[in-house]
Amino acid sequence: MTKPICFVTGNPNKAREFKHIVGDEFSSSIVHQKFDVPEIQGTPSEVAIAKASAAAAAYGGPVFTEDVSLCFHSLKGLPGPYIKDFFTKLGHDGLNNMLAGFEDKGVTAMCVFAYCPGPSEPVTLFIGECEGYVVPARGNGNFGAFGWDPIFEPVSEREGEGRTFAQMSAEDKHAISHRGNAVRKVVPFIRSLLQ
Ligand SMILES: O=c1[nH]c(=O)c2ncn([C@@H]3O[C@H](COP(=O)(O)OP(=O)(O)OP(=O)(O)O)[C@@H](O)[C@H]3O)c2[nH]1
Ligand SMILES: [Mg+2]
C-alpha cells in the first residue's frame, strides 16, 4: 500500500499555521513527521528542492516540506534561506543592527512549499511572498506569533495601522503572509493528488 502524504517539518509553528490556513480538509489525509534532513547552501529554491528530495528519501514516500527565507534588499537577498541561524544567534536586535548602515529596510519573506512524490522523483515548488520592512520588535505574540514576526512590518501596514506580524491576529497575518500565499497555491495541487 502506498504511504500517505507526509508534511515533513521539525517546526510545530509551521504545521499549526498550515492547519489554521487550510482548516480540517486534509487532517485525515496528510501526516506530519520530523526528519533531520540536511539543508544545503544555495538559492531558496535550490535549498527547498534538496530538502524535499532528502525528506522523500528518508520517508520513503510522498512528502511536502516548507522552507522560509527572509531576504534583506540592502544585503542582496541575504540572510535568505539562512535566516534560522542568523535569527537564533543574533535575535531581533541583531537583525535590526545588520541594517543599521542602510536606508533601505525593505525585506521579502518567502515561503517555498516543495512536493516530492518519492525517492529520486522530481520536485514541484509553490512559492508565496510578502513584502515588508525590518523594524524594532513590536508585539508579544499573543496570537501564536513566532520567530521574527515581531520585526516584520508588512508593506500593506505602512498605510494602515503599522502592525508587525506579531501584532496581527492569526487571520490577518495569514491573509497576506508568505505562508498564506504559498498555502493558497498548494491547496488545489494537494486536492488533485488526493482525487
Ligand atoms: O516570524 C516568523 N514568521 C513566520 O511565519 C516564519 N516561518 C518560519 N520562520 C522562521 O524562519 C526560519 C526558517 O527556517 P526553516 O524554513 O528551515 O524552518 P525550520 O528549520 O524551523 O523548520 P523545518 O526546516 O524543519 O521545516 C526558522 O527560524 C523559523 O522559525 C518564521 N518566523
Ligand atoms: Mg529548517
TrEMBL record:
Mg(2+) binds at E39, D67. InterPro entries: ITPase, ITPase-like_fam, RdgB/HAM1. Binds 1 divalent metal cation per subunit; can use either Mg(2+) or Mn(2+). Homodimer. Pyrophosphatase that hydrolyzes non-canonical purine nucleotides such as inosine triphosphate (ITP), deoxyinosine triphosphate (dITP) or xanthosine 5'-triphosphate (XTP) to their respective monophosphate derivatives. The enzyme does not distinguish between the deoxy- and ribose forms. Probably excludes non-canonical purines from RNA and DNA precursor pools, thus preventing their incorporation into RNA and DNA and avoiding chromosomal lesions. One of its GO terms (molecular function) is metal ion binding. SUPFAM superfamilies: ITPase-like. This is Inosine triphosphate pyrophosphatase. It comes from Kipferlia bialata. It is found in: Cytoplasm. Belongs to the HAM1 NTPase family. Keywords: Cytoplasm, Hydrolase, Magnesium, Manganese, Metal-binding, Nucleotide metabolism, Nucleotide-binding.
